[in-house]
Write a structure and sequence with these properties.
This protein is an alpha+beta fold. Helices cover 16% and strands 38% of the residues. Strands 9, 12, 13, 14, 15, 16, 17, 18, 19 and 20 form a 10-stranded antiparallel β-sheet that branches. The protein has a 4-stranded antiparallel β-sheet with strand order 4-3-6-7, with no helix packed on it. The chain is globular and about 60 Å long.
Amino acid sequence: MNRFRRLLCRLFAGVVLAVPAAGADDGLEFQGVWRQGGMIIGRVAPMARVTFDRKSVPVAPDGHFVVGLGRDAPATMTLIVTDAMGPRHYRFDVERRSYAVQRVDGVPERTVTPPPEVMDRIRREQELVDRARAVDSPRRDFLAGFSRPLDGPITGVYGSLRIYNGVPKNPHFGLDIAAPTGTLVRAPAPGVVRLAQPDLYFSGGTLIVDHGQGLTSSFIHLSAILVKEGDELVRGDPIARVGATGRATGPHLDWRMNWFDVRLDPALALQYFPPAPPTAGERTALRLRP
């Protein structure tokens, strides 16, 4: 039994993942939970192709892939694996979630109802973020698992409906961790820095890290960014400091995760993808880190 299957069994004993339409054991493996906001890591035979939600999915040479379920993912989703034997369809029941309503008062009014003169800036900045999240790199850093980027109380959760200064806005797509301004933020998993911007209109100091195959972490409202675009990271590297920049009422880290444009829940990544034992390189970096 390989390491991936052992980890699958250890994490998900007693958890029903799904039953494929084809009953034979064809080597398809999954790790994760089919729940709105969830992330799924899979493995197929080398050279197989994968389609999920009518999208072509990047697959590594050894067959690993990752997909994501959005906040409002439908009750059933289909994954198609195509190899020399032809296509096979796997249908999964998706666990639905209920989301709380969170009222946030005291937010700078300019970030609730932006004036017309800043709309071009907002569009340009969103394009930067979208490009960083659209990168399809062959990295497989997501296989290393995820740890919390800092300690602190959770003050905001994924999916909650946000009302800012009495005005309903988009749902919140991150995990808010409260900490004093200047608290060190560390990389929750290996990756490469795709975006490092000190002052975006809504998100303030913004950092995006690519974990491979469309999976990214975003860290926002930062007071300082300690890395630059193109930097290679290992888990535990210092990457930023907590702040209250952009649309924020107090110092905290807002950690977000995406699979391309699909918003994922970092809390589920922490729960179902704990860190794997560090590699020799990571052990060296951990010894040397400040």
